[in-house]
User: Fold this.
Amino acid sequence: MARDSLPTSTSREVDAFLETVAATPARGNGGRLIFAMDATASREPTWDHACGIQGRMFEEAAAVGDLWLQLCYYRGYRECRASRWYHKADDVVRAMSAVRCAGGLTQIRRILDHALQETDREPVSALVFVGDCVEESIDELCDRAARLGIKGVPAFLFHEGPDPVAARCFREIARLSGGACCRFDGGSAGELRELLSAVAVYAVGGRRALARYGDGAGRLVKQLTHQIARTD
Assistant:
């Protein structure tokens, strides 16, 4: 299917995503965020977009507190890697720029298992995952998502494309972990950037920090601050 035929997020989907983020408890005063991506062959354009988004995420979060970010990805035949924890956007961009996407099946279970292991070592504020399909047992993924929810690690999933199986699975992972899911396409990089920056600010400083951030931000984050006002 051609990329320009993929559906974009509806206003209702974006509103639901923002409302869930606003209602999710945050640790505040600094955060550790795992940023995970599908790096199989179909993901290369979005991977390139994500490299540019990292700088914005760190800039916005830095005004609130310390953001530590770990890059995770899978690609090829059973290759699933996690970086060290980064404190600077330039280091993340360099790490991402060195990665080349390669064809293979999804390995979301390994990403979720890794997030569980990391938070056992030191609390993780949130997991972000960007992908377009699911080729694994949904029940196994939901089991891991529920464990993340018990440990207080919400998963925020960004779903590219129209795959109904992935859409259903991502929504369940978000629900069970206490996070949220939002759909986007290749033409909505600006929307993805704004939402990811909002999640980064939220992971570092919680609701109050996000409300202050929303004062000078765009439409989507302003919607989020309105949701916060209704849930406080």
Residues 189-214 form the longest helix (26 residues).
